[in-house]
Automatic annotation (TrEMBL), chains A, B:
Matches recorded under PANTHER family: CYTOCHROME C PEROXIDASE-RELATED (PTHR30600:SF7)
Compartments, as annotated in UniProt: Periplasm
Higher taxonomy: Bacteria, Pseudomonadati, Pseudomonadota, Betaproteobacteria, Burkholderiales
Protein's name in the database: Cytochrome-c peroxidase
Annotated spans, Disordered: 313-332
Organism: Paenalcaligenes hermetiae
Keywords, comma-separated and alphabetical: Heme, Iron, Metal-binding, Oxidoreductase, Periplasm, Peroxidase, Signal
Gene3D superfamilies per the UniProt record, alphabetical: Cytochrome c-like domain
Signal peptide: 1-21
GO molecular function per UniProt: peroxidase activity
InterPro entries the record matches: Cyt_c-like_dom (IPR009056), Cyt_c-like_dom_sf (IPR036909), Cytochrome_c_Peroxidase/MauG (IPR051395), Di-haem_cyt_c_peroxidsae (IPR004852), MauG/Cytc_peroxidase (IPR026259)
Keyword Ribosomal protein in record: no
Domain Cytochrome c: 41-149, 193-307
Length: 332, 332
């Protein structure tokens, strides 16, 4: 009887451990759950659209140009290069784990990934196309028509289905199993001592007040330059451009810190190239705290433990244009 | 004894069939052999370099920008977009099956893929970098240093190793098993009647005089506009730019017709968008022959049978820049 009770107790403990593996530690950050793909045909269609430069006027710029999945879902440039080499107004945020943000764009002007996806296509400084022309191009390509028909049950698809498919693909772009995730799940050996010290410092000095949740960011808007003003020539107004409130000037969506090792340069103006400098500036401007070299190195080491398993993407083969497909206009 | 002889004869026949499977039909075109990868680490390194925009001054243009493996190894633009949106001088040839050409570039000025690979990196109208800066950038990235060391046994690698790795990757970009290849190997059902009629016409009307061999092209230089002059505003001189001979003016490397369905627009100036128009122009200017609509459609159907199995590429994850990696300069 004792033996039976012990076994049962162990069994219950085992089940409990299994079910709560994700929250073994009581921390203000939660591990990432791998993407669950429920509609593979829609994901595959969205992937093609994500990589298709025919969604731009020039036929040269795709979603992947500025959210490059070889480079942490970013372009690693201060600000992006748009149609006819126009300089973008702001640093391209990573598309990785972007489904975990409360809103999209630095100023949160899009509530959903689907809403976001329509923005760059029609922005004259980015892909410089129109939704109407994008639809016309895709509808002229028989293989796309067949795929939209298979996925959405209609051949007369529009920007609604296009951006929906892109968003559904983007939802798969999560990066689970970073060393820090493994540690959160209970693996005591997943972090080095320096990384663990960095996390404690990150938590105790207040970084985690904004960089929290499953994405270590993306949960609030915060003023850039809270204790000391942030010096920049970038004219972005931040959240105020959406709310019209003066109090929201220079308030930006807190960026995710996941894969931050890969998504340099940093801040909304991309002014800072290294994590060392970014940590130093954040400490002084947002927390009024000057981290020592040792502390800085600890936090940087912790930040590098946030690099997760990158999505494994098989490059899509795009359906060829048809004889009557409107052609790109790279040069006027 | 009879039985033994018969078996032996069958064995010999079997072997003969096996060995000559590739040339079951006596045709001036040969099927493509799949790539054999003997040094996977070198191929993987070359793939990273092929996709790495840090080989350009701007940090925005990679080999794949103009030889996009999602789009038949081309950019589907008349002429390419280079650094600061400069208009390229000539249509980007496909990288697919390029190892099967006798020389590289439209004018054949590079004898090998390795020699070719160094060209765009240092061309001020293309990637606008220098070999020295490219080497400096890559040598600053610890993961690249480790990979070059593993593959080439040296940490002080240079442009020689960089272009070698790119070329070895490019050698894997062949597209076997097009319907026409299956037909060449003996599958009578691989082509439609229209495609087969198109091939007979292609052969009998003289197209195959230039578009022959395993790559249906890439075996000779020929004058563009043989019977009638080719009208173009493109200033390219062709082979004459290499040989200095007036007789070589407007002589270009005959392009491969493999995957031609995917590599529009056509000709060295990319002036023609559709295969129908390309076949019509080639017939009149090179052969002095006006194909009827039916004949034209047959040849186009045949050309579409040359679309092979596209390389399945897993997008590489590029090693992040180091704190001291020189940064891209997209805007001056």
């Amino acid at each position: 009887m004792l033996s039976f009770r012990l076994s049962a107790a162990l069994l219950v403990m085992g089940m409990a451990f299994g079910a709560s593996a994700a929250s073994v530690r009581n921390e203000p950050v939660q591990p990432i759950t791998p993407a669950e793909i429920t509609d593979p045909a829609k994901v595959e269609l969205g992937k093609k659209l994500f990589f298709d430069p025919r969604l731009s006027k020039s036929g040269f710029i795709s979603c992947n140009s500025c959210h490059n999945l070889s480079m942490g879902g970013s372009d690693n440039l201060k600000t992006s290069i748009g149609d006819r080499w126009q300089e973008g107004p702001i640093n391209s945020p990573t598309v990785l784990n972007s489904s975990l943000n409360m809103a999209q764009f630095w100023d949160g002007r899009a509530g959903t990934l689907k809403e976001q996806a329509g923005g760059p296509i029609a922005n004259p400084k980015e892909m410089a196309f129109t939704h109407e022309l994008a639809v016309e191009v895709l509808r002229s390509i028989p293989q796309y028509v067949a795929e939209f028909n298979a996925v959405y049950g209609k051949e007369d698809f529009g920007i609604d289905e296009i951006t929906d498919a892109i968003a559904v693909f983007e939802e798969t772009l999560v990066t689970p199993d970073a060393p820090f995730d493994l540690w959160l799940k209970g693996d005591d050996n997943a972090l080095t001592e320096q990384q663990l010290a960095g996390y404690q410092l990150f938590k105790n000095s207040g970084c985690v007040a904004c960089h929290n949740g499953v994405n270590l960011g993306g949960t609030s808007f915060q003023k850039m330059g809270l204790i000391e003003p942030y010096q920049t020539t970038n004219p972005a107004e931040g959240r105020a451009a959406v709310t019209g409130k003066d109090a929201d000037r220079f308030s930006f969506k807190v960026p995710t810190l996941r894969n931050v090792e890969l998504t340099y340069p940093y801040f909304h103006d991309g002014a800072v190239d290294t994590l060392t400098e970014a940590v130093d500036i954040m400490g002084r401007l947002q927390l009024g705290r000057h981290f020592t070299d040792e502390e800085n190195a600890q936090i940087v080491a912790f930040l590098k433990s946030l690099t997760g398993k990158q999505p494994e993407i098989t490059l899509p083969i795009l359906p060829p244009s048809h004889d009557n497909t409107p052609r790109p206009v790279p040069f006027d």
